[in-house]
Structure formats: C-alpha cells, structure tokens
Write a structure and sequence with these properties.
Strand order of the largest sheet: 1-2
Number of domains: 2
Oligomer: single chain
Radius of gyration: 16 Å
Number of helices: 3
Strand content: 5-15%
Helix content: 25-40%
Shape: globular
C-alpha cells in the first residue's frame, strides 16, 4: 500500500486534517486508519463538548491552554498543549 498522507486516528482532529488536506492537495492519496471501528474515537466521549477559542474578544489562546492543562489534571504534556 502506498499513500501521500497517512492519517492515524478517525476522531475530529484526524478527520479535520484529512478534509483540509484533501482540499489543499486534491491530487494526493490520503488514507485514514484507526485502531478500532471508525466511530469509536475519544471525540465521541468528549463529555462537555470540544473546547476551542471561538471569540478572541471573550477568550484567548493562553486561557484555552490554561483550561486544557487544568482539565488534564496534570496528565498533559504542557509543550504539546501549547
């Protein structure tokens, strides 16, 4: 098997990347793989929704990073979160 882009994970991050890559590289082959069923993702179990900065006047990326680290209860790698 050969591909230009191999995306590991069928959650919201993997599928968003796949869609954006398909739009920006329509001539490339993209494969998405997952370790179980395609709909069995951590995104499915996100209990309060998906966090993000939607309004920069009311929120900030630094606050989002802080919120993510708090929600991660010390388990997050701060450099990766940033």
């Amino acid at each position: 098997m050969q591909t230009d882009f191999l995306i590991i994970g069928s959650g919201i991050a993997g599928l968003t990347y796949a869609l954006k890559t398909a739009k920006s590289h329509p001539d490339k082959n993209i494969i998405v793989i997952t370790k179980t069923q395609a709909d069995e993702t951590n995104t499915k179990y996100a209990q309060g929704g998906i966090a993000g900065v939607w309004d920069e006047e009311k929120d900030s990326y630094n606050k989002h990073i802080e919120d993510t680290l708090i929600a991660g209860d010390g388990l997050c790698n701060e450099k990766i979160v940033e």
